[in-house]
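Sample entry (376 residues):
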Amino acid sequence: MNMQMIARVWLVLRLADDSPLAVAWVTISFALPMLFVSALGGALADRIPKRRLMVLCQTGNAVVALVVATLDWTGVINFWHIMGAGVLGGSLMAFNMPSRQAVISEIVPEDKLMNGIALQSSGMNATRIIGPAAAGILIVYLGTSGVFYLVAGLYAISVLTVAAIDAGKKAQATSKNGVFSDIGEGFRYAVGNPTLLGLIIMAFIPVLFGMSYHVLLPAWAREALDVQADALGMLMMTMGIGALVGSLVVAGMPGLQRRGLLLLGSCVVWGVALALFSMTTSYALALPLLLLVGLVSSIFMTLNFTLLQTYASAEMRGRIMSIAMMTFGAMPLSAVPFGAVAEYAGTPSALFLSGALLTFFTIAFAIAYPHFRRIA
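Predicted structure, serialized as tokens:
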């Protein structure tokens, strides 16, 4: 997935003359399905075996990557092909991720849930180190089409590894209601629980204001540092290293108390680090700041997913995790405005605004919702 992200962005920049707004539109094509399809994916995760759903989604990802690789290799690919692939990939992610997150509670006991989620995040973050660096180097030698072929093969391997998981083989809940009734029940359950509602609101804030660097970093790297694909891969790898360290820190914290306060603090540091990063014009200074952004964002995401599963009942976890996944679908609400700011005022200005807003809204939420600071 991380190799594919670099290859897709580099392909878009090549086709759209380095336009940050074009990258934002491709991000929208991937993110919007998560906003509209995740709820359905969560309902299905509670109704059918999670492992089966994950295998089907990974198979679909392999097929999409194979088609993009072939279109690129034959020279007929255009911007709209990438947009279409983004819609398909985002839809598959929306079906896959609620099951992928909720199945952890079927693998580890309740008192080890935070450690299990953190270790799973560590595995994903390790690929954030390897994937971007490998893709950045391989693009130079194999081109984007070669990387997409490799991605398709890796997705095929992941189908085999997911099929071997000894969990998620039966549904957690049975329902005589329709799927859409189950979706409505999940939303009512989340709104009726103040802790879950606060966690979902806090999941939206960094997605709206803190995730802009995912969209803007490639254009920023070209604009501020004039780097090539291999150097961009190293920047992405540095964020992955920070994220891996952050998830391992959380995994090594047994019996952690005041997790709500740590969640808020990590989000504030995230915003400040992003604002400072936006002002640097040095590759050497950019690396440690990206390392910090990766670290605190990983701590935030791991704690948020842990608390959502901790405070949700077993039969509702798929639907609650799908609501959390929907927050990622809200990224277009910020991707286009920040992309437009970058287009007309420069990418550094857009990144600084993003970090400043993330800090402001996190502090405002902490003041308005004092109960959240006391979440255990």
